[in-house]
Design brief:
Helix content is about 75%, strand content about 0%. The chain is built from 23 helices and no strands. The chain is globular, with a radius of gyration of 23 Å.
Length: about 450
């Protein structure tokens, strides 16, 4: 059995094991290690396992070491810590609080405020799951209390939570940048306009929904205290400042993405202690949560690096790329096929699993056709974002179901999410057909 065949069989085996819910880190490292062993054992034509032990162990250890000691990887624990510390200081929810005060007297206003709160949370945390979990606990009960349709209340937060994948900082952009060796700073900047476009699309869905069915979003008749709007707007200053520091600093060339993360963490801690909203106990809790989350991401990323090295050894990615070249597919047709593949995988696998599994095969095809890898990164993350609310395994939907009223069934949330999914497809088509939306800001550097 030649190396390319072993690579394709291994890829199929990975899909099967992931479908059986085997942890992705163990799947990637295990299949890659066994596959590498077989390639070296059969290299001479006959099975000689003694010749495979040293090169296999060397490949595994070197790949793991190379990934863990990557400088770019250091920004993941920093941004994860930023999100957790900001949450414990209350910074991540202040944009929602401000938007809620300003919009609660407008039809569907609390739902729109929830979407804006999710966007604000995403601009600090970089995690879709954390965004959906946190905002789901805050926004959904408020909307249900006001008499909102449960489908609108839950679906708007489930969809809004996906903004954490696209609006910088984003863990998925970091992983994409590491595995494709593209600029993470430019990826962050490229995600700004697509993220805002997605947010605008979601707001349009809420407006359309409530205009067709006003009973889905009753207006809160409670009058606001004098000066409440101004006070709420002023209270959101820490979140806005952090976003400006991260994006403004990177765009202005003042510091790198990693430096922006470190500076933002320090600023968040100082703000928390200054406002007395952060204690040593809550800070330790945030650090402990960050350690757990970072360890999980690092383990998956390191095992993925082993799998990438295995794929390179097999030559399977080059073979697939050659098949595509021989087929003479146009860039648009290839993009359509890639979108269908990611949308299908998004129905069953988690975003990190999809990105580390597919990039070794997809990137050579895209690169051979001369497509911009920054733009393609935005498309990939957008597709992963859609997968978070796609049935039957939309992670954000199940997160919302777990943190809100258990009487609301998952089927109800999925029924509401379909409207936002339709808008996602429209936004995806716009981003594919108009690459300038993603590239205008990073190319301005």
């Amino acid at each position: 059995m030649d190396a390319s065949t072993i690579g394709l069989v291994a890829f199929g085996l990975v899909i099967v094991l992931l479908a059986l819910r085997v942890p992705i880190a163990f799947v990637l490292a295990g299949v890659a290690t066994v596959g590498t062993f077989l390639i070296y054992a059969f290299r001479s034509g006959s099975f000689m396992p003694e010749r495979a032990l040293n090169p296999t162990s060397s490949m595994v250890v070197n790949s793991f070491f190379e990934l863990i000691h990557s400088y770019d990887l250091s920004m993941i624990p920093l941004f994860v810590a930023l999100g957790n510390i900001a949450y414990h200081t209350g910074i991540t929810t202040r944009i929602y609080d401000a938007a809620n005060v300003w919009l609660r007297s407008v039809p569907g206003g609390v739902s729109v405020a929830s979407l804006m709160g999710c966007a604000g949370f995403s601009a600090i945390s970089g995690s879709s799951i954390a965004c959906a979990s946190t905002m789901g606990r805050i926004c959904v009960p408020e909307m249900l209390r006001l008499g909102y349709d449960p489908k609108l209340a839950t679906a708007s937060v489930a969809a809004g939570g996906t903004l954490g994948s696209l609006i910088p900082p984003s863990v998925l952009f970091i992983l994409y940048g590491i595995f494709t060796e593209t600029s993470i700073s430019k990826l962050f900047l490229a995600g700004i306009l697509p993220g805002l476009l997605t947010l605008a699309g979601y707001i349009i869905v809420v407006i359309w929904w409530t205009s067709r069915d006003p009973s889905a979003a009753p207006v809160d008749p409670t009058p606001l205290p004098k000066g409440a709007r101004l006070k709420a707007a002023i209270s959101a200053w820490p979140a806005m400042m952090l976003f400006v520091v991260i994006i403004g600093g990177i765009y202005g060339g003042i510091f790198t993405a990693t430096e922006a993360a470190a500076i933002s963490v320090v600023l968040t801690i100082l703000i928390g202690f200054f406002e007395r909203s952060l204690t040593l106990r809550s800070m330790w809790t945030a650090i402990r949560e960050s350690l757990v989350q970072t360890s999980a991401i690092f383990l998956i990323a390191a095992c993925a690096k082993i799998f990438v090295s295995f794929v390179a050894l097999t030559g399977a990615a080059g073979m697939v790329s050659q098949w595509v070249a021989d087929a003479g597919l146009s860039p648009l047709v290839l993009m359509f096929a890639i979108c269908v593949l990611y949308l299908f995988l998004g129905m069953f696998l988690d975003p990190v699993g999809i990105i580390v599994l597919t990039l070794p095969f997809v990137i050579p095809m895209v690169d051979n056709l001369g497509m911009d890898l920054i733009w393609f990164g935005v498309i990939v993350v957008k597709l992963l974002e859609i997968g978070l609310i796609t049935p039957p395994v939309g992670l954000n939907v199940f997160v919302i179901g777990n943190v809100t009223d258990r009487s609301i069934k998952v089927d109800t949330i999925f029924a509401g999410v379909t409207r936002f999914l339709a808008m996602d497809i429209v936004v995806l088509a716009i981003l594919v057909l108009v690459p300038a939306i993603s590239l205008v800001i990073p190319n301005g550097l």
